[in-house]
Amino acid sequence: MMTAPARAQGQVLSVVADDWPPFSGPDLPRGGISLDVIAAVLERAGYTVETQVVPWARVLNGARSGTFDIVGSLFADQELAEFLTYAEPFYTTNVQLVRPKGSEITFTTVEALRPYKIAVGEGFLYQDEFDRADYLDKTAVTTTSQAVHMVAHGRADLTLDSVDVIRHVLGSEDPTLADRVELAPGVLAAQDLHMAVRTGLENSAQIVADFNRTLAEMRADGTLETLLAKHIDAHVNG
Question: Which end of the chain is least crowded, N or C, by CB within 10 Å?
Fold first, then answer.
């Protein structure tokens, strides 16, 4: 049996993510998919973990200032990689458009979305080309839930997010939403979900290496699949 590195013994890591169910949220079991997986991997690697969910602006400020050690629920992003070191991904999700029920809008290219008013999350990352497309008619909101409601009530033509997030919104909020909106055919991107360690943390490289090694072990022995399945079943069937 492998023993935890000496540095890991007793080290307490602060892990933070924004409110983005089902990946992370204060009311989700064990903080959601992301925080639960990150904590399980790091604890198996020998670390002590403290998790919390805070607004995105506070996540960024705390990661830059050193208040937080690790950020979860992340897609890969070059700007974040300037001060965060990404670990291997632990989950993959598709990003798709949400359209009014019965609409014929499908995703073909980002350019083809020019005619539509699109509700987006403030500061959210979706897909590189879409995120850079300043020529699109984007209206920023705080949450995906708000964006879906805009589409449902005719205040926006489209929104978008991870299909897991969309399904969580449709399954946990106003039951009439599922009668008003639907996922549009076509995938903007398959995005990997990561955790990343504050690069300025003294042993950040060791933490990432320990995480990657332990994640591979959990993937090989089926522990990761079992852990993910509990959350997926909860937000799809719950």
Answer: N
Whole-number pLDDT of residue 53: 96
| Contact residues for 135 (Cβ-Cβ < 8 A; gap 6+) | 114
- How far is Cα 189 from Cα 129, in angstroms, rounded to an integer? 10
118 strand-pairing partners: 138, 158
- Residue 98 contacts residue 184 (beta carbons within 8 Å): yes
pLDDT in tens, 86-143: 999 999 999 999 999 999 999 999 999 999 999 999 888 899 999 999 999 999 998 9
* pLDDT higher than threshold 50 for residue 37: yes
Q: Of 171 and 147, which is predicted with more confidence?
A: 147
Residue type, 184: A
User: 162 phi and psi, to 5 degrees?
Assistant: -55, 140
Calpha distance 193→190 (Å, rounded)? 10
**Cβ atoms of residues 196 and 84 within 8 Å:** yes
Q: Quick one: tokens of 167? A: 């399904």
Which amino acid is located at 55 in the chain?
P
Q: CA-CA-CA-CA torsion for 55, 156, 131, 108, nearest 10 degrees?
A: 140
**Given the structure tokens 């005719």, which residue do they identify?**
154
User: What is the pLDDT at residue 133?
Assistant: 98
